[in-house]
From TrEMBL:
This is histidine kinase. Residues 111-163 form the PAC domain. InterPro entries: HATPase_C_sf (IPR036890), PAC (IPR001610), PAS (IPR000014), PAS-assoc_C (IPR000700), PAS-like_dom_sf (IPR035965), PAS_fold_3 (IPR013655), Sig_transdc_His_kinase_HWE (IPR011102). It catalyses: ATP + protein L-histidine = ADP + protein N-phospho-L-histidine. Its EC number is 2.7.13.3. Transmembrane segments: none annotated. Keywords: ATP-binding, Chromophore, Flavoprotein, FMN, Kinase, Nucleotide-binding, Phosphoprotein, Photoreceptor protein, Receptor, Repeat, Sensory transduction, Transferase, Virulence. It is an enzyme of class 2 (transferase). It holds the Pfam family HWE_HK. It comes from Blastomonas fulva.
Length: 367
């Protein structure tokens, strides 16, 4: 395809470019020159980019790839035009890639997918593919512009980190199991301690479940079964603390639905708050109390953590610990909200706001 044909199709002028013989006034020649200059700038720009760049006609026919594509794949120029692109995908990814691409063509929705693309070395490397439609003034799609980004190194590092995370989690859960076993052995030797030992074992088991929610998760390791509401999850996380059963830790108010998307950051936040309270705050005192009030207002879910009857607070701590920064990150970025701490003499109050749309996926949304 000539440069002029490419730009004519790219900007919706039809399959054929205007010719000089049709030009009586010179305006068509000027338009053609402008298109040629744009084409030259487009190719220079895309060839200078580190990503592979490609484009298609409105029906998905691939007719352009930049130099990075041919450099990465090592295929002859033009060999992946049309539908030939799918042949360089890993065989296990081809059907899925076709399905996602057809969906975008039918709906006009942005295209995004990860797949394994054959490198010129013969190795299949993980790649992130994205594409957006270009519309003319009438709103009609005239072209798709896409990129492929080599994410293989990041993918391999993420998988390695996932293995390390699982191994660390496994060892931590083994520690909980060993402690439970030691308590059981001590109870058998001292029968009068059995009721206390059973209660303590239940608390340790609950801490193990809280750890499973609060640790970082990937798509593969996230908990399969979680409480489906915010109050249900908080109850599961906080059951490890005796104050819950004693009525000194109270969860009240609205009960918005959640799913695995938000369970981990929520568990992390409240596990951190409860742990700090048990060490230094209201839950460290025999009569100390914590109230958790939940109010849903449209897309805002407001949660207030209020401590009282614990050790007196003399002021805000001078240093910010890692746990505090982790909570801030979870609320601000993962739950699209904000958090404020008030160091009141009668006890800590934490005001949190979360986005309801981050607590649970919309129906039909991909997992």
């Amino acid at each position: 395809m000539s440069d002029l044909d490419f730009l004519s199709r790219a900007f919706g002028f039809g399959p054929e470019a205007p010719s000089a013989k049709d030009d009586d006034s010179g305006s068509l020649l000027a338009a053609r020159d402008a298109l040629l200059r744009m084409n030259s700038a487009f190719r220079i720009l895309t060839d200078a980019m580190p990503q592979m760049v490609w484009s298609t006609l409105p029906d998905g026919f691939h007719d352009y790839y930049n130099a990075r594509w041919y450099e990465f794949t090592g295929v002859p120029s033009g060999s992946t035009d049309g539908e030939g692109w799918n042949g360089v995908f890993h065989p296990a990814d081809q059907d899925h890639a076709w399905g996602v691409w057809r969906h975008s063509l039918e709906t006009g929705e942005p295209y995004e997918i990860t797949y394994r693309l054959r490198h010129h070395s013969g190795e299949y490397r993980w790649t992130l593919g994205r594409a957006l439609p270009l519309h003319n003034e009438q709103g009609k799609i005239v072209r798709w512009i896409g990129t492929c980004t080599d994410i293989h190194q990041a993918k391999m590092m993420a998988e390695e980190n996932e293995v390390l995370s699982r191994e660390l989690s496994h060892r931590i859960k083994n520690i909980f199991a060993v402690i439970n076993g030691l308590i059981g052995m001590s109870a058998r030797q001292s029968p009068e301690l059995k009721p206390l030992a059973a209660e303590l074992q239940d608390r340790i088991a609950a801490l193990g479940r809280a750890h499973e929610f609060a640790r970082p998760h990937s798509e593969q390791s996230r908990p399969v079964s979680i409480a489906s509401t915010l109050r249900g999850l908080l109850t599961e996380i906080l059951v490890a603390y005796p104050a819950l059963g004693e009525g000194r830790l109270v969860i009240a108010g609205d009960d918005p639905e959640i799913d695995d998307r938000s369970a981990t950051p929520i568990a992390l936040v409240f596990h951190e708050l409860a742990t700090n309270s048990a060490k230094y705050g209201a839950l460290s005192a025999e009569q100390g109390r914590v109230d958790i009030d939940i109010v849903q207002d449209g897309n805002d879910v407001k949660v207030n953590w209020t401590e009282r009857d614990g050790p007196a607070i003399v002021g805000e701590p001078q240093e910010t610990g890692f746990g505090t920064r982790l909570v801030q990150l979870a609320i601000n970025q993962q739950l699209a909200g904000d958090i404020q701490r008030h160091w009141l003499p009668e006890g800590l109050r934490v005001d949190m706001r979360m986005s309801a749309s981050r607590l649970r996926r919309a129906e039909g949304a991909p997992v």
